[in-house]
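Re: beginner question about structure tokens

> Can someone show what the tokenized structure looks like for a real chain? I only ever see the sequence side.

Sure, here's an example I had lying around. Input first:
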Amino acid sequence: MLDRFTKTALVLMVVITAIFLTGAYIGYIGGHGMEGTDAMVEEHAASTAANVEATSLVPAITDLVGEPLGFTIAGIVAGFIVGYLWTGLFRRREDA
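And the corresponding structure tokens:
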């Protein structure tokens, strides 16, 4: 059985997710008016930058396996680290 805090957190999570989805759908059906600043900045940077490829001395994991797989591997490693340290980070200090 769920306690009161868990029920409240679950309801809030569902409500906030529904708000995000509704906002995204309204933006989608609204058309191209919600392009945002990122696309404008990227277009400006692409038009003014020279065609020079950035080089790095140390290859990143995304250079070796690609961006989606690289971020997946990084997420798995971070999850293992946080999972291993979870009890040490969030242990309650009880007075004897």
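Each token stands for a local structural state, so reading them left to right follows the chain. The chain is about 70% helix and 0% strand.
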